[in-house]
Specification:
Elements lengths: L7 H8 L16 H4 L17 H16 L3 H18 L3 H10 L2 H7 L6 H9 L3 E3 L2 E2 L12 E4 L17 E4 L2 E4 L14 H8 L2
Antiparallel strand pairs: 1-2, 1-3, 3-5, 4-5
Helix pairs in contact: 3-8, 4-5, 6-7
Function: With S5 and S12 plays an important role in translational accuracy.
Keywords: Ribonucleoprotein, Ribosomal protein, RNA-binding, rRNA-binding
GO molecular function: rRNA binding; structural constituent of ribosome
Length: 203
């Protein structure tokens, strides 16, 4: 499946928020959004246009989709599955949606601090450097369950400096991580407005 291979920091500038797509650089003063806090393009330094309700929903969808490195068809399927689960288990659709994103193998590897970015995590998984429950696994989009264990077999990939705390629902020791429970809403990026994405797909 194809992916965006262009300049990562242009995506952050497009959305007006740091998507942390460039590993350590994203957390430094050198990140593109700090240096050029306007949208990319010839007239990017003009004031951002006022958006309609649909435009606001679309931009939120694009922001979250790019943050997790998910393509449109896959992103919509995640929404459909979250809608199904919320009806079956009588749970919050927004939380189900965010959990499906957070519990992707590439996302858990990144959140555990074992990869500098989700893109780097995906590459390590595809190249066979990650084991799931003791077996080599190469599907970045796989949903990690409670009590699942992940091991990174390429120690040099892990960043030497941690830029954010590991969430409490992930237990990390050396190059291994374990999902000890499912995340709650307060433990997932508070900048995400999942209600706008639900409204977008519910149109």
């Amino acid at each position: 499946m194809g992916r965006d291979t262009g300049p990562k920091e242009r995506l952050s500038r497009r959305e007006g928020v740091n998507l942390h797509l460039k590993g350590a650089r994203s957390f430094s003063d050198k990140n593109g959004l700090k240096r050029k806090p306007f949208v990319p393009g010839l007239h990017g330094n003009k004031r951002r246009p006022r958006l309609s309700n649909y435009g606001i929903q679309l931009r939120e969808k694009q922001k979250v989709k790019r943050t997790y490195g998910v393509r449109e068809k896959q992103f919509k399927n995640i929404y459909i599955e979250s809608d199904r689960r919320s009806k079956v288990y009588n749970t919050d659709k927004g939380l189900e949606f965010l959990r499906l994103l957070e519990l992707r193998l590439d996302s858990v590897l990144y959140l555990a601090g074992l990869a500098p970015s989700r893109a780097a995590a995906r590459q390590a998984i595809v190249h066979g450097h990650v084991s799931l429950n003791g077996k080599k696994f190469s599907v970045p989009s796989a949903e990690i369950k409670q009590e699942d264990s992940i091991e990174l077999n390429l120690v040099k990939l892990a960043p030497s400096e941690k830029f954010f705390p590991v969430p409490d629902w992930i237990e990390v020791k050396d190059n291994k991580a374990k999902v000890v429970r499912l995340p709650i809403r307060d433990e997932i990026d508070e900048g995400i407005r999942e209600n706008l994405i639900i409204e977008y797909y519910s149109r």
